[in-house]
Amino acid sequence: MQSTSKAGASRSLDARIQDVFEEPACEMNRGKDANVRKKGCSKPLTPGAAAGGCAFDGAKIVLQPITDVAHLIHAPLACEGNSWDNRGTASSGPMLWRTSFTTDLTELDVVMGHAERKLFKAIREIKETYAPPAIFVYSTCVTALIGDDIEAVCKRAAEKFGLPVVPINAPGFSGSKNLGNKLAGEALLDHVIGTVEPDDAGPYDINILGEFNLSGEFWLVKPLLDRLGIRVRACIPGDARYRDIASAHRARAAMMVCSTALINLARKMEELWDIPFFEGSFYGITDTSQSLRQIAELLVRKGADPEILERTEALIAEQEAIAWKKLAAYRSRLQGKRVLLNTGGVKAWSIAHALMEIGVEIVGTSTKKSTAEDKERIKEILKEDHRMFESMGSREMYDILAEHKADIMLSGGRTQYVALKAKTPWLDINQERHHPYAGYEGMVELVRQIDLAIHNPIWSEVREPAPWDAQPAMKEELQSTQSESETFPASQISSAPPPAASAGGEES
Question: Region Disordered: what ranges (predicted)?
Fold first, then answer.
């Protein structure tokens, strides 16, 4: 099934990338005129620029948590890697999303032009074996370079097998992980959202965009919405189902959790289906309460009964009282403790604000992947610009921690060893973590984990000087003992013959 429209597919990807760069809601484009905006909102890529995560990786991050879909990677085997529990997202039901599917292309497939035929057969095998509601097919560097037209193959397979087969055209070389996030949102708009009409749409339906349900933390928030009678029609992508996303166009309002990833999806859904959205956070007590209020206000604007505002305030008062009572036990233990935040995006300000509520001082917070609004909020919260940094080198980070300018560092797994080398407590705040930190209960859990890390007795032990450094005489004694142990009397040397030589003439 060799395609005849490969050049057209390539141009389509270029046009899509340019469209994403012209995103009017992107912070780099605000305030520009139409001509300047067309130049794009991203610097040209240089070799190695996508080393921290390519476009394919970004698309997979956004779409893989759709749990009942089969995710098929059209590539050599190594492009897929290990999909099991890849980012700590959680599912309340289907587990198909964790199974790796790949066409496992070889050099022979590439040379002989069998790649598209192999993709079609893989789609058929998945459909017959697993019967998923949909199959997502991802292009990669190799298949994009050889010109495979996955859109044509997916269209033919969908007609043949009678189920949605969605092409995700985000090869790794096309850009960074963040670009892949946005291209995944475009694929949902083009092929998924709006394809199913629900028969139960109501005035209290909302979408949550950019929420990944890491460690199941959205499950700490959803019960609050349930108590208010608010239904999450689609959480994209955390613990999502294909039909939920396909009918997401009938929601009345939306909350954007991570605008860096899916701002294009939120804006276009507002333009196409009149779904207003706001950017909020479920990290911290104040921010969780404010997000609940804004959801209720948007729903009232869209025709919901105004009494939901009173019920929301009652729920907030109840939950805040419970949370503050639990946090009181930690306030005296953490008052004045200093935290270095090395994360990004919405967490750069939401986690900082949450910790400051209980008296913790923020030494610094990163602004990597943060939008212009994120940075403005950080300035409001910290009051001082010098505590914001775009990126921090390992040496600079180590100096801050080694000089005890911070009592703990909150970051991702990549920088944990900097903290451990500086003999400073460290807590995982990124996607690999094992504890949920969203909502009121999540805030209490975050503070509890920080308290456990800071007051762990191991840190006082490892910071003590070694016995031989504290007592020079002991060091001399140890050196003397070591010297004696390396000297063997001739009587203790074995007189046994050397081992026999092997057949090849070398010692065995």
Answer: 465-508
